[in-house]
Structures are given as structure tokens and as C-alpha cells.
Amino acid sequence: MLVRKVHLQQRHPGDLRPARTPPEPAAVLRADQLSGDVPRALYHLIGRAHGWTARRCWDAHDWEQHHARPDREIWVARYRRAHVGFAELAVHGSDVQIKYLGLMRSFQGRGLGGQFLTEITRQAWRMHERVAGAPVVRRVVLTTSSLDGPSALSNYLARGYSVVDRTTARCRLPVPAGALYRVMARP
Ligand SMILES: CC(C)(COP(=O)(O)OP(=O)(O)OC[C@H]1O[C@@H](n2cnc3c(N)ncnc32)[C@H](O)[C@@H]1OP(=O)(O)O)[C@@H](O)C(=O)NCCC(=O)NCCS
Fold first, then answer.
1. pTM for the predicted model, two decimal places
2. Does any ligand 1 atom lie closer than 6 A to the CB of residue 102?
3. Which domains does the chain have, with CATH numbers?
4. 51 lines ligand 1 (CB under 6 A)
5. pLDDT (tens digit per residue) in 4-47
6. What is the three-state SS of the chain?
């Protein structure tokens, strides 16, 4: 399968064009304020539709070790009483990467994704204040792809990210469990 990728960046905190605040905004929380199961469940529930496969075999211990990394931050969006969004920031020198960002499907399209990206971008620009020894953030970067939702790219462009590069990659996505079962069940 051919996957089209778009690489984006902001080069200054002033590049951010904040989204309109929705009538009922989500709370955006650091994952370490929550039970470890919450981010793990959100990663799988949101990511399974978008090829987030890198952590599909991680157990609770792997997630614990990941949470302990000072150069990574997981953030969660909470709407009313539900945890609905997952985002992760990663420090790479003076770049901060938005490694993941997504909402549960039934909470998309009502203004929460724009608000979540606005808050995560603000946190990305300030990440050096929270990570000992990290250089001042010079760029916020991310990659979106044709595996992402239909409004992902327009959300990034609307928030002031600009396109740096476009690439393609040939990917072998894991076979869904149902398809594997059907193949194995054949006489
Ligand atoms: C991408 C995602 C976070 C956007 O969140 P959302 O709640 O659906 O979007 P919102 O309603 O807050 O709208 C935010 C922006 O998306 C764009 N957008 C919203 N609906 C759209 C549509 N139907 N078509 C095109 N763009 C649309 C607009 O640019 C909008 O910003 P604006 O209103 O300031 O112009 C969400 O759809 C999602 O989680 N998708 C699945 C995971 C994913 O693709 N993540 C991105 C990985 S890089």
C-alpha cells in the first residue's frame, strides 16, 4: 500500500493560529495525572483506524518505561467525563515533534480537535521549560499521512503549520485479525 506523507512545521510560537474555543471545551491533561491504562487504551482505540501499530505488542511495563522518559510527554483530552483524545510530544534536540494526535471517532468534527491541537502546540513550544537540559524549542514538527483522518491536514494548516516536504512510502499494514482467521479457517 502506498502511503502519502506530508511533513509540516511551525518555526515560531507566533505561527500558531488558535482554534475557536468550542462551546464545551475539553480539558487537556498530562497523562501522569491519570491511570496508566487510560493512555494505553486511547492509543489503541484511536490508532487502530490510522495505522498506529508500533506499540501493538507493548505491555503495561513497556508503557510504564515510556512514561518515565523525560523527553516524551503524553497528553489526554477529557470531554465531560470521558477520555477522548491522545497526543504525544517528543524532544529531538531543539525540535519538538507531535508524534501522535487524535480523537475518538465519535468526538471528531465538533471543534475539539482544533482546540486539542492548539493546546498541544502551546505545550510543545514550552517543552524545554519542563525537560531538564533541553535546548530552547526552535521548531514544532509533525507528519500526517493518507492513513490519517480526512480533516487532519486541514486542521494543521488552519493552526498555522506549513508544509516542508511531501513523500511517499510503501507500507505493509498488519493483517487484521478477522482476515487472518478467515484465511486459516479455509478448508
Ligand atoms: C484530525 C482530528 C484531530 C481533527 O479533529 P476534529 O475534532 O475532527 O476537528 P475540528 O472539528 O476541531 O476542526 C478542526 C479543523 O479541522 C478541519 N476540518 C474540520 N472538519 C473538516 C472537514 N469536514 N473537512 C475538512 N477539514 C475539516 C478544519 O480545518 C478545522 O479547523 P477550522 O474550523 O479552524 O477551520 C480528528 O479528526 C482525528 O482525531 N482524526 C483521526 C486521527 C488523525 O487523523 N489524527 C491526525 C494524525 S497526524
1. 0.93
2. yes
3. 2-185 (3.40.630.30)
4. no
5. 999 999 999 999 999 999 999 999 999 988 877 899 999 999 99
6. CEEEEEEEEECCHHHCCCCCCCCCCCEEEEHHHCCCHHHHHHHHHHHCCCCCCCCCCCCHHHHHHHHCCCCEEEEEEEECCEEEEEEEEEEECCEEEEEEEEECHHHCCCCHHHHHHHHHHHHHHCHHHCCCCCCCCCEEEEEEECCCCCCHHHHHHHCCCEEEEEEEEECCCCCCHHHHHHHHHCC
